[in-house]
Each structure stands twice: as structure tokens, then as C-alpha cells.
Amino acid sequence: MVKVDKTKCIGCGSCEAVCSEIFKIKDDEKAHVISSKNSKCLKEAIDICPVDAISK
Ligand code: SF4
After folding, report:
1. Which site from 35, 44, 46, 51 is most exposed, i.e. has the minimal number of CB atoms within 10 Å?
2. pLDDT tens for each residue of 3-18
3. Which DSSP helix (H) or strand (E) runs through 12?
């Protein structure tokens, strides 16, 4: 299951930029997982996150 560690996330928006089907920045300025499907862009999002907040 994909998870964003909210204590690490700085809300940079990179995960949403590369994988908007799974990640969305919400009002708390953290990335939220909006879908549990294992899209190809998930790996890209994990790789691009500057603080390694995304795990699966
Ligand atoms: S790429 Fe990482 S730090 Fe940036 S919004 Fe996504 S989870 Fe947060």
C-alpha cells in the first residue's frame, strides 16, 4: 500500500506533478494518496520525492 509520511512531506508537489492519478496535494499542503492502483508513475514519484516520504 502506498503511503506518504506526513512528518517528512514538505508539500513540494513533485509527486503530484509526475503522478497525479495517485497523489494530490490537499489543503494541509501535504501529499495524499488518492488511489491505490499501482501505476507506472508511482516509481517515478518515489524517485523524485526530495525527502523520501513515499513508501509502498
Ligand atoms: S514529492 Fe515528497 S515531499 Fe513533495 S509533495 Fe510529494 S510526498 Fe511530499
Report:
1. 51
2. 999 999 999 999 999 9
3. none
